[in-house]
Amino acid sequence: MNIPINQSMLKQIMKHSYKYLILCITVVFSACNTRSIFDTAGKPNISVDRDPLVLHKDSIQFTLKASIPGGLVSEKSNYTLLPEYEYGEGALPLEEIEITVEDLAGKGQAVEIIKKMSFPYMEGMDRGKLRVKGLMEEVESGKSYTTPYIELAEGIISTPKLSRVGQFAPGENIPEVGAYMSYEGEFGNMSSHETAFFFAKEGSNINPAINNDAFEAQVEELVSKGEEINEILISGMASPDESNYDVLAAKRAQTLETYIKEALEKAGYAFETSDITFKLIKKEPDWLMFRYLLRTFDKIDMNERDKYFDIIYADDSYASKVTAMKELPSYKQFSREKFSEMQMAQVAFATDKELRDDPEISALANRYINGTAEGDELTEAELARAAEFNPGLNEKQLLYEAMLAKRGSALALNNLGVVYLNQAHRMIKVSDKNRKVNEAMKLFRMANDLRESAYATHNMGQAYLMWEDYGAAYLEISKANALSREDSVFNSFNEGKRGAIDIIRGDYKLATIRLDKAPETATNLFNKGLAYYLAQEYAEAGVAFEESALQNMEFGYAFYGLAMVAAENSDEERLYENLKKAVQRSPYLKRRAATDMEFEDYFSKPEFREAIR
Known about the structure:
By secondary structure, the protein is of the alpha+beta class.
């Protein structure tokens, strides 16, 4: 079969092919010309101060030194160093270093470069390579030649990542995180009953029109139990839109003292009201209650809410703050819908009843857990006690929620938040985990609004740790330390966490000091050993790792630490012995050991491969 040929089209193709061929020859010749300059001038001499590289804080920091032959840089050509860190399936480009004729000390002289560089650490980088290539460019034509890569360093020592701050890997036991408040600290008298009595705006008299049915019901319930009341504490309050706070709050407390005596007698109180000690407490303008109402009022957006906080935290008088608030657009709605909750007096009844024992509290607590409770089986303190000795997170949640249904105490808010943190710890989906941590943080803020405490502040720091926001976590946990100076037990616990974060922050010596004050748990002792190891105090590190192993023989990290010390001391027998114990106890440590540059000198040895098999 004959196929006709379009002669004009063939000529056109040949014409374009000829032009393309000429272009290719030109490009190749130019590249060869540029390369010849490079070959004539000589290769750059480039090095870094660390090989392998070392993780410090959250980044890899190193100093690059280079000597660039003068022939590579002139008025006609520039030379650029293009460093990158290659790992996994790709590479992270680092800061380019461009050398021009202006950098020359003299014609034909080499350019000496000393440059501090860094890049952020990411998982998977440990067995990567730092490398650099050069790009030589002609100024006028733009022609260029790229030099082959030069390897500068292999791998990263990321030992500070071993610091234990509550995290865990698949196959490891899930650690408990956070600090629960003890009911003994929050409730001095487990038989105390707290309630509130409300007044009309600007009023201090008993007004039947105000709904105090809940107060009357609680008084009747208390009387029906036949318990003698030892003491009644009354704290008068007033809202910001009421005049003369001090006078009004005092009048409300005084009025309520008389009314409570009458209410008790009316309800059939079997003892003498004259034997009851009444304490009228002068309560300062209650910004704690105000902050609680503000945080729980969902009709104000975050920006507007922040304006209220700016006002109440300002160094001004109460009257000045109220005046400033009235200028805010949301003030009228907020005051109309929420301020009535501050127009009241808080009342606490302390009785002399015989305390229930734990089995009875536990039996009644089961009604709350099973959903059959009417809500008055246990007091707040008894619910707190029941939650304390009940190990299940779901059970704790139900008991603390029952406490909140009675009253929003700081203990209930804080401890429910701790439950949420530990539930988040066990969630697989990141979105579910983050939502739960957010809910916990909201509860810690509310707890601190009611009464600022080291517990809720520490827990806020633990929440940030779960997001790996180490800077914010350190600030909160340091603040908790300042709040807990009178509580040596809590302060010791808090110092353990702060020391672990010091390791991540790169302050190893300070970490050893803080962890020396921490409770001697397996985790704290491991962190202490890690801090000493990173501070290059290997004997002290070995002692701490040994003590950690003795505390918990199933804690693989202690044996991993001992393996690192053995590698540092070139003690191969102990290295393989401890490494084998570590990887048997933790799948994560097994994976890590295979790429951990702490063991670089042993990677090729069959004994090492056998130990991590």
